[in-house]
Task: structure prediction
Amino acid sequence: MTKDMKTRKKVVIAGGGTAGWMAAAALSKTFGETIDLTLIESEQIGTIGVGEATIPPLQRYNDIIGITEIDFMKQTKGTFKLGINFENWTKKDHAYFHSFGSTGKDHWTCTFNHFWMSGLARGHNQPYGDYCLELVAAEQNKFAHLPDKSLNYAFHLDSAQYARFLRELSEANGAVRREGKIGEVHLDPETGNIALITMEDGGEVPGDLFIDCTGFRALLIGQALGTDYDDWSHYLPCDSAIAIQTKSVGPPIPYTRSIAHEAGWQWRIPLQHRTGNGIVYCSKYISQDEALQKISDTVEGEKLTDPNFIKFRTGARQKQWVKNCVAVGLSSGFMEPLESTSIHLIQRNILRLIQLMPNGDISQRDIDQFNKQAEWDMETIRDFLILHYVANERTEPFWTHCREMPIPDSLQHKIELFRETGRVFRENEELFAENSWIQVMMGQGIVPKAYHPLADKMSDKELEYFLSEIRGRVAKTVSSLPPHDTYVKQYCPTNDVM
Result:
């Protein structure tokens, strides 16, 4: 039985874009008529709109809100993503691939890299990537859904189209969109909670629970509630980006490209109808004009949009749930798009809120649990991003600064443990699994001095069979896959691909 209309919890989402409509879609689908859901959005306020590469957990979110993958891909003009190719990061003219999924076959005592290292010591010189299905498929630009779901993937998507798609779903499930700009946020003088939002046109939007999706402005959790922001720019010094969309010049590849330059890096994200391009940089080492010239000189295809200039400060809100306000998206913090975690962090806070949704008064213990988990997510992702910068052999001033900067003790321990023993441990369901850390550490030039003694238990013949059988299985599977572009055109074609 649904609650009486008068007693339904009033949930107000401040801000639209990807964050706002992801929140609206999940809440309206999950709670339906048991909540009164309003989203405030102004057509006059633009969105960042560059989070167009994702990671595999987005599949779970789409399942929760009840959309099929084919519809999702068609609506967002999406392509498949098997990982990220990092070019020029360790040094110029060097590349490595961070793939989804696993590499080789782990033992309960140790991960596959220990057996691979034992093989190196015995003269087996095949690259580590030859044992990874996703990596080999990406190298050959192949993709297909496999019956055993053994090929792990995410998506490249048009984030603006995704937001529109989510809006349609949300409104069909009862969410109400309120057009207009926020004028003022009013606090209850007794509790300190947010009581209502006054619109610039004089209208009022009261609520019991508010979700701040106002982006970098953080109008609710930052400006109204005064929640401080932890600045992590001393760990991740890039502070600017420029995004440009271009026409596609060839078939879309099933991975994101991340190309380092002298003061940051560039991305290329292939969609069905266009390519998303961007340059991320540190303004202390390169000017905006220089960065614009660099991306203008290197993009491929006709430009479809004017440059979108973005300033940011990497870091996290000290608390992401305060009083009756939950931060989702850029209001909660910002991790530069290096490992495509922006949409994932939106998703995490939304699903976490649903799990801890109060039925009546808000519990401080729920708030504390939410903030503890959110803090863990942000800090572990932060460490993984720092790894890409601190382990490098480049000679430019920016990269020298990154190599010499102090890093968190948590990351220092992980690096030294791997360097000394080849071991990586995943803790408390952190986002990036052991294989991700191993691929990036070895890709960035961190070579273990030792490996697990169990790997030497195999005889030469047993090890040779073990390694060759994995490589053969990977090669055979990839040989059966169609080209990625062919598969996309058959699986989820759009009618307006340029």
